[in-house]
Amino acid sequence: FMTQRANDADRSGNCPAGTVVDREIVHPTDHDFYLQSHGGLLGTSRPAHYSVIYDENNFSADGMQVLSFALCHVYARATRSVSIPAPVYYAHIVCSRAKHHYDPSGSLDLSETATITGSQTTDTLEMFKTAFKPLHVNTQKVMFFS
What we know:
Number of helices: 3
Strand content: 5-15%
Helix content: 10-25%
Number of strands: 3
Distance between the termini: 31 Å
Largest sheet: 3 strands, antiparallel
Mean pLDDT: 79
Low-confidence stretches: none
Oligomer: single chain
Strand order of the largest sheet: 1-2-3
């Protein structure tokens, strides 16, 4: 996004961190917004697009935006705010490392298109538990994904 006045921009010419756009360019009925959560060091910063699919905590629009912005400041691998909330980064790291805990020559279908219905759910869960390679003793009580 561009600022309307040069004085409103940060030193790299981007919108300041914390800028939220939740009108005009978002969906007219769905709860979504854009959040520029980090200051750009060089070049153009891109805001993240958030779509609220289900809100069991009944956050207000402003509350959801403030929470999202706050979670962009708690990522352990960075000293500055990041572009998306830290739990999203951690989930990505855990998923990418999960492949090391299953035998690739095993019989589990780890594809994204595998469909499980009804009674197969319990059987499949047991197959995953059986095929899981346990963590090394040195990593069992630490956040190995941070």
